[in-house]
SAM-dependent methyltransferase
Amino acid sequence: MTNVDWDAEAASFDEEPDHGLRDPEVRRAWAGRLRGWLPAREGDVLDLGCGTGSLSLLASEQGHRVTGVDLSPAMVTLAREKLAGRDAVFLVGDAAAPPVGEQRFDAVLVRHVLWALPDPGRALRHWRGLLRPDGRLVLVEGVWGSAEPVGISAERLTGLLAPITGRVSVERLSDDPLLWGGQVTDERYAVVAMDPSGQERGEAAAAGQ
Ligand SMILES: C[S@@+](CC[C@H](N)C(=O)[O-])C[C@H]1O[C@@H](n2cnc3c(N)ncnc32)[C@H](O)[C@@H]1O
């Protein structure tokens, strides 16, 4: 994927069931998962490598304000069209260092992008710094293919997150064909990693401090 011309891919990107979410069942499956991963309270979501904005739209429909960032101007144009009239902005920029200035977010959402960045650990540290207290990283990743697999395993990703975030939960997604428009056999998962400062405050409150 690192050599993919995303501008050239943009026009047909949504044809894949899990990209465009055009099938109502697939769309419902992703909407349900996303609702469980994002904060219950409406907030600010940063969708990095947002593509055509399919997950941005679901987040917006669930009441969140969305900022999307993608390196491909063609993807950003399609995302702007998809969320026209909504409380959402889309910027051309690098997911590893998104151009959001001092803005901070309740959730940083990244699907199928982290694994292809040159330094995933560095990107995660940067994203952790973009969270508000009590914020969270929502990372949807996987390992695709069998002959020459590409991607990032849940084991490696949770290893990178352990020193920089609080509670981390992993949800396996391979066994839910509704998400993918059919059966899949490779590793697919979502990780939700909580901001550690929020967790410390919660623990302190629970201990009556
Ligand atoms: C597989 S698509 C995923 C799109 C979207 N996250 C989704 O799940 O539908 C990968 C996207 O990441 C974008 N991308 C790749 N490298 C990037 C980078 N360094 N910074 C920002 N976007 C990037 C591509 O332009 C493409 O839109």
About this structure: The pocket of S-adenosylmethionine is lined by residues 6, 19, 49-51, 54-55, 69-72, 75, 94-96, 111-113, 116-117 (CB under 6 Å).
